[in-house]
Amino acid sequence: MNEPLGVGIVGCGSISGIYMQNINAFERVRLVACADLDADRARWRAGEFDIPRVLSTEALLADDEVDIVLNLTTPQTHYPVAHAALQHDRHIYNEKPLTIELDEAKRLLSEADARGLHVGCAPDTFLGAGLTTARRLLDENAIGEPVGGCAFFTCPGHEAWHPDPDFYYQRGGGPVLDMGPYYLTALVTLLGPVRRVTGSARRSFAQRTIGSEARRGQRIEVEVPTHVAAVLDFASGPVVSLMVSFDVHGARLPMIEIYGSERSMAVPDPNMFDGPVEIFDPALGDWRARDLVPGRRSNSRGLGVAEMAEAIASGRPHRASGAMALHVLEIMHAVHEASRTDRHVPLETTCARPEPLPADWSP
What is the mean pLDDT of residues 53-61? Predict the structure, then answer.
């Protein structure tokens, strides 16, 4: 195996802990530094996960030990941090979404291509055993030809638990850009790229009240739609209904289902790495769970970074690619545009379906 690539993390907030834990355990990457606007928070994380150095963002991007910049900042700063990293000739891996604006994402990919650098992006949950099993079953024609599907994410909002939930309700937030990447990445992995979308969106409440300490009772303004329903026409033929909402207190809805010409498939939570995967067979009149293929089942965020590191060393494309993240971002923008303009919106971007990880692949 090649020497592990050095990873520098920018952004030491809520999501960083699981990335730091996992990257420390992977063999293809090693944590060399971290940075955060709050230097005390960065020092705390460095102590918690034995990260050798705490640097400023500028120093981390310029550090020769950093091969990959793992960008875990809030969505509003995904682009400037990633762009600066590329200018220092670092590979980048962004938390989702790739950027807020579509033109920013295109500029990132263009710059990376010109410099021969890799751009990766969360989510990497599609690399886990659950979605890999669903993908292999589709490839084996287990439900016949896919003709349609549905995908649902519902919750009452993140302000009840998140210490700083403001960005969820600002531009770049909302259920589409926050949770949409999990569902859309899973669907693109399973069914391929989308050719057009339509949708309707509403901002149900002008303000939200924080329920978490220490800001309990503070009110925040809502700038973005918080309940969105969409129809996705895939290039391969299926038509999928998607609903994502921060306005639902309770629901009895599946995560993802794919309907085939012969059977139906229930797909696991795309925010997780494990199952279950179930097939409904009309001959049996019931749903039956399928055994998961070998693969990651625990929370393995950062798996996409390790896979990208191996791809860099091998000189091949990686799976959690910038091209797929760009396509997912365009789908999300197109849903909002369709609601604003009362029309179907055709997609300009496309991407390849990433191949499932081999059963014997190790990070």
Answer: 98
